[in-house]
Input
Amino acid sequence: MNVRITSPIDYRVLNYIFHRPNQSRYDISRALRMNISSVNNSVQKLLGGGLVLEELAAAEKIGRRPYLLRVNEQFGYFIGIDFNAQQMHCVVINTVGSILLSKYTLVSPNDSKEHIIDLVCRFIDQSLDFLGPRAERVISIGLAVPGYIDKNSDICMSYVHMEHWKNVDLCAVIRSRYQIECFIENNINCMTLGYKWAEFDQAGDNFVFFAIRGGSRISFFIDGSLYHGTQGFAGEIGHWKLYGANRRCACGERGCLDTEVSNIAILDKIREGLKEGRFQGILKLAGGDAQKIDILTFVRAVNQGDQEAAELMWVCAEFCANAVSSIYKILNINDIIFSGDIVTHTSFPFVEVLQKQLQEDSRLFAVDKIRISTYPTNQNFAAFGAGILCMEENFHCLNRIP
Output
């Protein structure tokens, strides 16, 4: 499992093989506009380390059969783990990004940091057991964690929805215990990497990924890379103050985006409304048990035409438009991708409402250039993105190709 990738040329060739498998050396040379000797040198390094395989193409009617290149999916493996205040997910992926194992467990906002670390280690142990003899080929472990991470030290600083999750050097624990390289990133940034990998040909080099989960957060993909800011806090818009909002946030302030645009905010509003006799349609979908109402119950209510649920969605979309308007004015990035159950699993015309609100913002220049879309994800998508984080750190596999 020893492959020395030492030059930008090697990375370019490998990246092309990742995303354009079953091409010949000549195909790569022509596509990348590189001389064939440079391609041959890089390919020989990749073949020698076992990362790339070269196989004779299937028989053709005319001409000599070429040798085609592809990444060896059994070269190595990556473990990706993601958690928030409700769940923890774990996946094992191979060298071409295919998920081989997916597991999850429930998490509580009141869990101690020791308990969270223990759950992470249990998942790693189960992943290594699953791989058996292949476990020695685990290249690295990726951690997708919520809240604030100091990218200069990789220390998890805090997460407002888990009061005990403060000043945790999770990477150091994992490296010490398993002697495996470990990378850490905010969970929404990991989702962004997963999106870039899964939609490589469609996703551009400049876009904003707007995730609505327990809170709201955005990731910036600028000039082909994640943008972190000086310490890694870029995209933490959950505590962005909104005009017209006055609900108290978990941070202690009022009017934060998280109090209007998040799963937690919507469920809080529903619980408050139930005390006033509202949201009876949602309560009925939960079998009359308010404790069973979750965000998917709300989604079902929207899809079934519940008026009160639709009104909640409308308010959420309006506040999202407020945030998008500000983001566009600051960054002038046209592509904005929304992810989260409330925007991807409902029949509510979320994108259309956002576009309408933005059109009414007379201060927004070239609003017709903004492209808003939604991207559905599975519950384990951030864990998958943590695996892609490992691939990117090891292979630079998300670079643009011709």
